[in-house]
Write a structure and sequence with these properties.
mainly alpha; single chain
Length: about 525
């Protein structure tokens, strides 16, 4: 395809993303479903060329920043506390699902080599980080379930990639060793973690010495690709390297970033991640044309592969249910024996966790990378795509209703010691102490009376709010409604002055920035 036409197609895709997101919002649909449908529609539009996806390119472009984004904002304390549960899902559930799917496929096609069955199992076994994010952004889960799903989606790709590579090698060479596969997985994971620690440490040192905000934001944006590509270059897990780097950078960004840098960087990063996430679902949908053509058309695909595809989808779903409920039973048994470090999830939470295994771009990229001539390649590709579409359309659209039905309650053990208002009160007291210390000169004379009065009043108001929260909530909202209205009036007057030529552009931008910060503060306080 001509490079100019390719660029035009990318712009059309971005415009379609905006339109499809708007339509999904208007009709109450998950954006991922609308984007999948839109991508499939674009794929079959007359005159548009077929889109051929390079799986390695897709992984290296989209996976690192999306993994970095998840690791950057994840709750690190809860991640450590629930690491055993996360590892159970990210490693144990992936291996178990791979085995169940392989057995089911071999039962359907006894002539298909076990290696080919294992390849399909490895492709569809890890739920996708990108798809999981798309689903989790639209639902409200208890913190424990949220961290289990987020942690699983960050780490399970490494398990799936290792299984996939060994299954492909077994299909080509005819040899496979479970012990070797497990040993390789742990070596790849440890190597990836070492790479991530090294790059994260260098980043922290570098940022502390660099004074240019835009250079820091640019370097931080490239951090994800540097981690992933270096890990893959030295043959360790690029996924683990990226996640580890993201955890380190996310932990230290609170101390190495200035306020303006964090606001500018977060705004840029959020828009980039939005476009990348949406592009992934568009690309998945647009790949439908090639998948269907390879299978011989819709009619042939449904007639010859419809039942096997359904069996695989059911098998991997049941495998996840079996693993989650089995793990919950183990925890309950340990509690009976007196080992009460972990509380069982319970039946309803286990159902929600089991139903949240949505597949996406990693599954598609692995399926597309199966070598030409590999046994059962067409069936693997078509079935993998069916699993993606099935999990996104079925589980992605019903997970919200399932959570509403479950009526999950946050356990007391998962709640933080201080809530938002109490943390704000602690901050106010610390700030007041500093102001008191500096409000007087060396001779004991009060030199900042207004500042001291302001911080004393703020500390008192916050304490009063905590004691009478329900009473003050209505007044608080009304207060900030007035503040927002005043900001809007000030903004109109500022623009009028600029349009009349009474102030120059520099004054406009400076005062507009002050109004923007004031508006963001008011909106945050109101929410």
């Amino acid at each position: 395809m001509d490079p100019t036409h390719l660029f035009e197609l990318v712009i059309v895709m971005f415009l379609a993303i905006i339109a499809l997101h708007y339509a999904a919002h208007r009709f109450g649909l998950p954006p991922s479903v609308a984007l999948l449908a839109g991508g499939a529609l674009l794929a079959f539009l007359p005159g548009l060329p077929a889109i051929a996806i390079d799986p390695d390119l897709v992984l290296v472009i989209f996976l690192p920043p999306l993994l970095m984004d998840g690791a950057w904002f994840i709750a690190l304390g809860r991640l450590r506390r629930h690491m055993i549960g996360i590892a159970s899902l990210a490693v144990g559930a992936v291996f178990f699902t791979c085995a169940v799917v392989a057995v089911a496929v071999h039962f359907l096609f006894p002539s298909l080599p076990w290696a080919a069955c294992a390849v399909l199992g490895a492709i569809v076994s890890p739920p996708d980080a990108i798809s999981a994010r798309a689903v989790l952004q639209r639902v409200k889960l208890p913190r424990r379930l949220q961290i289990l799903l987020e942690g699983e989606s960050l780490l399970n790709d490494a398990s799936g990639l290792v299984l996939f590579r060994f299954a492909i090698a077994a299909g080509v060479t005819g040899a496979f060793s479970t012990a070797e596969a497990m040993g390789s997985f742990f070596l790849l994971a440890l190597g990836g973690a070492a790479v991530g620690i090294a790059i994260g440490t260098v980043w922290v040192v570098f940022v502390r010495r660099l004074n240019d905000e835009y250079l820091i934001i640019a370097a931080t944006t490239l951090l994800a690709w540097m981690s992933y590509m270096l890990g893959e270059m030295i043959h360790v897990s690029g996924v683990i390297a990226t996640v580890t780097t993201g955890l380190i950078a996310g932990w230290y960004q609170h101390t190495v970033f200035s306020a303006s840098m964090r606001m500018r960087g977060t705004s840029f990063w959020t828009v980039m991640i939005f476009l990348m996430e949406a592009s992934v679902f568009m690309l998945i949908g647009s790949s439908l044309r090639g998948v269907v053509e390879r299978g011989g058309g819709f009619g042939v695909v449904i007639a010859t592969m419809g039942l096997p595809m359904l069996v695989v989808l059911v098998a991997l779903t049941l495998a996840r249910f079996a693993w989650v409920f089995g793990s919950n039973l183990v925890v309950e048994f340990c509690n009976v024996l007196g080992l009460k470090r972990y509380a069982p999830l319970g039946a309803r939470a286990s159902v929600v966790l089991s139903w949240a295994g949505v597949r996406g771009v990693v599954t598609l990229a692995l399926a597309l990378s199966v070598p030409e001539g590999f046994p059962g390649r067409d069936f693997i590709l078509v079935t993998s795509f069916a699993v993606i579409v099935g999990t996104v359309l079925v589980q992605g659209t019903t997970l919200g209703r399932l959570i509403e039905w479950a009526k999950l309650i946050e356990p007391e053990s998962e709640k933080a010691r201080l809530n938002l208002s109490q943390a704000e009160a602690a901050m106010a007291q610390a700030q007041l102490a500093t102001v008191k210390d500096r409000a007087y000169d060396t001779e004991g004379n009060l030199i900042h009376p207004r500042l001291l009065e302001r911080y004393q009043l703020r500390a008192k108001v916050i304490v009063d709010y905590i004691q009478k929260t329900e009473h003050h909530d209505v007044l608080l909202h009304a207060h900030f409604d007035v503040v927002l209205a005043a900001i809007a009036t000030g903004r109109r007057e500022l623009i009028r002055l600029h349009r009349a030529g009474d102030i120059d552009d520099e004054t406009l931008h400076e005062l507009e920035r002050d109004l923007d910060l004031e508006e963001l503060s008011a909106l945050s306080a109101k929410s």
